[in-house]
Design goal:
11 strands, single chain, mainly beta, Jelly Rolls
Length: 121
Amino acid sequence: MEAFTRDLRDFLKFDLDEAALDAMEWRDYGKGVELAKLEKGAEASLVLYRVADGAPRDGFARHRHPGGEAYLVLKGTIADEFGTYEAGSLVWLPPDSTHTPWAEGDTVVLVLWPRGVKLAD
């Protein structure tokens, strides 16, 4: 599997409102990983992940995306078996892709799951 990615920093600037982020309803998954649901449809979900600086690499379980996954790194760095993506990176993982991501530094990622996410076998 190969991720499709594009660095958007050549024409986008990110200025996150940290106070607005802190005011959101976050679900703590432990190991420094939190999730805030932005929108949920019949199948698709739009979420924010926030990962604390120093979170262990096993903060995310290995998982599969039946409909693929698109994400935009808003702050920090996300990496997986296929690459490293810094703030400003837009990443697409194809349907039925499986990966185990981790964060490097204080990280915020906007994620779209067209058909959800499942734990990998």
